[in-house]
Specification:
Blueprint: H1 3-10, H2 15-23, E1 35-47, E2 52-62, E3 67-78, E4 87-91, E5 94-98, H3 103-115, E6 119-120, E7 124-130, E8 144-146, E9 153-158, E10 162-167, E11 169-170, H4 176-186, E12 195-203, E13 207-215, E14 221-222, H5 223-233, H6 235-256, H7 274-291, H8 306-316, E15 337-340, E16 343-346, H9 357-360, H10 367-388, H11 396-411, H12 421-446, H13 452-463
Antiparallel strand pairs: 1-2, 2-3, 3-5, 3-11, 4-5, 6-7, 7-12, 8-9, 9-10, 10-13, 12-13, 14-15, 15-16
Helix pairs in contact: 5-6, 5-10, 6-11, 7-8, 7-12, 10-11, 10-12, 12-13
């Protein structure tokens, strides 16, 4: 089938069907907004024998004039076959459906990455790349299964050996997931799921990363679930694992700062405005949140203390030396880790999905990742209480923090962080306060029953003496 035939066929998709399909998917990120138009921007067939596989870029428009771009993976089978899973539309003799539901087509994406072949489209090219030296990333594939908990992307596991993550919401530019995985894989960093390949689009509408292929980590346990399980059964055992997590985190930051010749990764001295800009941004968020704080018993410890929080932030920002800024994980918490074969594996280098790619690619203090993990310990302790009815042992969170930070500081390149433990703790407090304020806003909007967690974090930071 020619590229003209591809476009002619897909142009037959009714706008209504496109809108209905995209807006009902878990990975659609703007469910509170009304979609006014949907347009196929570009498309190509990756598989040209039946069943057909098309990669499609669509643009959804909202009022008043804004838009978002998404990647669709569409399968096409003859209607006479009676395919019924994930059906999107009927186009004459063809049934159009969600391709990840079809193992044959899911495997085709991996085959395309392995072969490194490209597909021309009307406005650009769909490119498939394999990482040099990764030809051993699995034999001929047999099974494909989706990860049902995936929210913002689509992830498929093949024969418990490989995992493919297809990005659904697209932005122009290289996705940090690909950028950081490629960098760390090339340098042999062991505590990640190594990159095996990727696919991307290059063309007039945009250049964008579409998906990454990695090794799958079999028999692994999610770090968040492990924390909750061991808080109930063996809380000291989990604390004992955290020094190693700190060491792995420090080694990751050291590796990310190891190439001074690459402008995208070379460590830099922070500008004099950087911390001031950070604190000004948090300061504005604090003002907006405290003005709207509802009358809720769980908020009593911080009610009326917005100005105190702002004052504390200003004082904490005077930390003197701030170390260096580097590329970092950007959304670091226990849910982004796995425990496998007696060690930690770090996942999901996309950064915070609510931020733009340009923001996620910005160099920041590595202590921002550390603060994110420290807040995750606070969440684990509270979630054990809320979800499992388990009261963590007294001092558990403090010991968890100490083990993690101790392992981190013993391992990370000391030039990347402020000189002296007191300066480290003060800068950590800035980033923890930033995170706790973000959490407060999120929980007020999404999970009011959990609002006590960020409240406790903010209260603790307010009670912390300033050295």
């Amino acid at each position: 089938m020619s590229e003209a035939d591809v476009r002619a066929l897909l142009d037959g998709l009714e706008e209504r069907a496109l809108i209905e399909y995209v807006t009902t998917q878990r990975w659609f990120g703007s469910k509170a907004r009304e979609v006014t138009h949907a347009t196929v921007v570009d498309a190509a067939f990756v598989r040209t024998v039946e069943p057909l596989l098309a990669t499609v870029l669509v643009e959804l428009r909202f009022q008043p004039g804004t838009h978002e771009s998404y990647q669709l993976l569409l399968g096409l089978r003859r209607a006479a076959e009676g395919w019924g899973e994930g059906v999107i539309a009927q186009l004459g003799e063809w049934t159009v459906y969600d391709a990840p539901a079809d193992p044959t087509l899911a495997r085709e994406l991996v085959h395309s990455i392995r072969s490194g072949r490209h597909r021309a489209a009307g406005e650009g090219t769909f490119e498939f790349h394999t990482v040099e030296g990764s030809a051993d990333l699995g034999r001929e594939l047999r099974e494909a299964r989706p990860i049902p908990t995936e929210q913002s992307n689509t992830s498929l596991v093949f024969d418990e050996e490989l995992i493919l993550k297809a990005f659904r919401r697209l932005e122009p530019g290289i996705n940090p997931e690909l950028e950081l995985l490629r960098f760390l894989t090339a340098r042999g960093f062991p505590n990640i799921a190594a990159l095996g390949g990727w696919y991307a689009y290059r063309g007039r509408p945009m250049d964008a990363t579409l998906g990454v292929l990695q090794r799958f980590v079999p028999g692994a346990q999610d770090g968040w679930e492990l924390a909750l399980e061991e808080l109930a059964q063996a809380p000291d055992r989990f604390v004992g694992r955290l020094r190693r997590l700190g060491e792995v985190t420090g080694a990751m930051h050291t590796a990310l700062a190891s190439d001074g010749s690459d402008p995208n990764f070379s460590p830099e001295d922070p500008s004099t405005e950087a911390l001031g800009l950070l604190t000004a941004t948090i300061d504005e968020e604090i003002e907006q949140i405290w003005v709207r704080l509802p009358d809720h018993p769980a908020l009593a410890p911080i009610a009326g203390r917005g100005e105190e929080v702002r004052d504390r932030l200003r004082l904490l920002s005077h930390v003197g030396t701030a170390g260096r800024v580097i590329r970092n994980h950007g959304d670091y918490h226990l849910g982004q880790t796995l425990w496998a074969a007696g060690d930690w594996v770090i996942l999901d280098f996309e950064g915070e999905p609510a931020r733009s790619i340009s923001e996620r690619r910005r160099k920041r203090s590595p202590l921002r990742d550390v603060a994110g993990m420290l807040r995750s310990f606070a969440y684990a302790a509270s979630a054990a209480r809320i979800l499992r009815g388990v009261e963590p042992p007294e001092g558990w969170e403090e010991r968890a923090r100490e083990e993690f930070v101790g392992g981190y500081l013993d391992t990370v390149d000391s030039a990347l962080v402020p000189s002296g433990r007191a300066a480290v703790e003060r800068l950590l407090a800035v980033f923890e306060l930033e995170k706790a304020v973000y959490e407060l806003r999120y929980e007020l909007n999404s999970r009011p029953d959990w609002v006590e967690i960020p409240v406790a974090g903010i209260e603790r930071l307010l009670g912390r003496p300033l050295e």
